[in-house]
Amino acid sequence: MDPDQPEEGYGAMDCGDGVAMNLDDELGEDMEDPELIEEIGINQALDNSKQTFEEHNGDENEVYCVNVHPTQTTLAVSGGKDDKAYIWNVETAEKLLECSGHKDSVVFADFNKDGTLLATADLGGFIQVWKLETNQQIWSIDSSDLEWATWHPLANVLLVGFASGEVYMWKVPSGDTKVFPSHSCRCMSGAIHPDGKTAVFGYEDGSVRIYDLKTSQIVHAFTKGRDSHNGEVNSVSFDQDGTNLATASSDGWSKIINTSTGKVVATYKVTNTSPSSEDDENSVSIECASINSRFNLLAFGSLDNNLYIWNLRTKQIVKKIEHPDGITKILWDGSGSKIFTACLDGICRLWNGRSGECLHSFFGAEGSILDISISKDEKWLLSAAADGNVRSYAIQEET
Q1: How far apart (Å, rounded) are the C-alpha atoms in residues 151 and 131?
Q2: Is 205:185 a contact under the CB 8 Å cutoff?
Q3: Using CA atoms, how far apart are residues 218 and 133, in angstroms rounded to an integer?
Q4: What is the pLDDT of residue 38?
Q5: E strand or H helix at 160, and its extent?
Q6: Smallest Cα–Cα separation from 74: which of 380, 399, 390?
Q7: Residue 115 near residue 70, CB atoms below 8 Å
Q8: Which carries the bigger pLDDT value, residue 13 or residue 144?
């Protein structure tokens, strides 16, 4: 397929509700017992996960975040509504460390650049950093209501965005602090440039600002008119070399910004941008966006149940891939030829990013998928779900 040309009808391939076309093969003799299928559900009946980590206690305790260790790729961390984070083994589901002390849902848990430190943060703004060599907490701070957090890609530095609109940057474990001021609305999302010198923040009012992390000065700002969004900025992300960044907004638009010139070079939207009622206004929200530099593609997932893939050179749509429910997160694989999607229907899927073919589905969850992560060696896919569990899938075995 020529990625520069859109296929007629977008070539959408059903790999959601349409999974029923392969149910006989997947279920085998169990398909002859409809009462069993009704009792346990299709997702459980087709469960192809390697392990299920159940320490978050399931059901009422949703799991909000999951990440894989950068070098020890059989280690993962997850955080959830039970006010805890855990480090565990993806091959055995053995719990290795319980990170307690939080008093609210843990919405961020991730390792630093070399995997020597782990940061955990809850909605109330209590942040802890753990040293993996000793499994001991080495730094903590109690702040205010938290929106997002991320590690610096090159240093032991945390950036954290708050409901107040401020963004704090802390050096760990010294606690040296810089504050990027509020603009009178929540700071909804943030990302750090791969070179570590600048960061981009997205806000509730639709504005986007790029800051110099050393001087704390604004480098570029998109605050009004066509360059800003008309809804909250759900996510911001840089491409692999930091040349461009992509935004994802609840207004149904994604913008591509050149980080050197500060110009919006392209805008893309979901095709269903006419909600039939006020209740449907969020149905066009773009939850996540990611640039594929190798093939010059932009992908974004929307609550209108579609994965959109655009050609950045021609600015034409390459694929519109329908899902049974809204998409919460997307991840390109290392080759840039495949893309994983996490869906509110409880299924993760792997797609050919240019042909739109569904290569594999990952079953087992009884609730919406809230986060996914891939190990650097691409052997493991992890999914955190609203059913209170985290599942590990052996990608190479399944595909």
Answers
A1: 15
A2: yes
A3: 38
A4: 54
A5: strand 157-162
A6: 380
A7: yes
A8: 144
**Cα–Cα distance measured from residue 138 to residue 155, given in angstroms and rounded to the nearest whole number:** 16
Phi and psi for 30 in degrees, rounded to 5? -60, -25
Total number of residues shown for the chain? 399
Mean pLDDT value across residues 338-343: 98
The answer for residues whose C-beta is within 8 angstroms of residue 366's C-beta and 6 or more apart is: 41, 43, 44, 346, 385, 387
* Interatomic CA distance for residues 259 and 355, integer angstroms: 30
Written as one letter, the residue type at 22 is N
Of residues 336, 330, 231, 225, the one with CA closest to residue 284 = 231
Comparing CA positions, the residue from 303, 377, 389, 381 lying closest to residue 348 is 381
CA separation for the pair 84, 55 (Å, rounded): 10
Tell me, yes or no, if the pTM score tops 0.70. yes
Q: Is the peptide bond before 3 cis (omega within 30 degrees of 0)?
A: no
List all residues 6 or more positions away from 262 whose beta carbon is below 8 Å from its beta carbon: 210, 219, 220
Question: Are 306 and 321 in contact, with CB atoms under 8 Å apart?
Answer: yes
Please write the tens of the pLDDT for every residue from 301-313.
Answer: 999 999 999 999 9
DSSP designation for 324: S
Find the angle CA(339)-CA(317)-CA(361) to the nearest 5 degrees: 25
Q: Which amino acid is at 101?
A: G
First-last CA distance in the chain: 21
Q: Taking a C-beta distance cutoff of 8 angstroms, is the pair 203, 190 a contact? A: no
Q: Which residues contact 349 (CB under 8 A, 6 or more apart)?
A: 15, 16, 323, 340, 341, 343, 358, 360, 361, 362
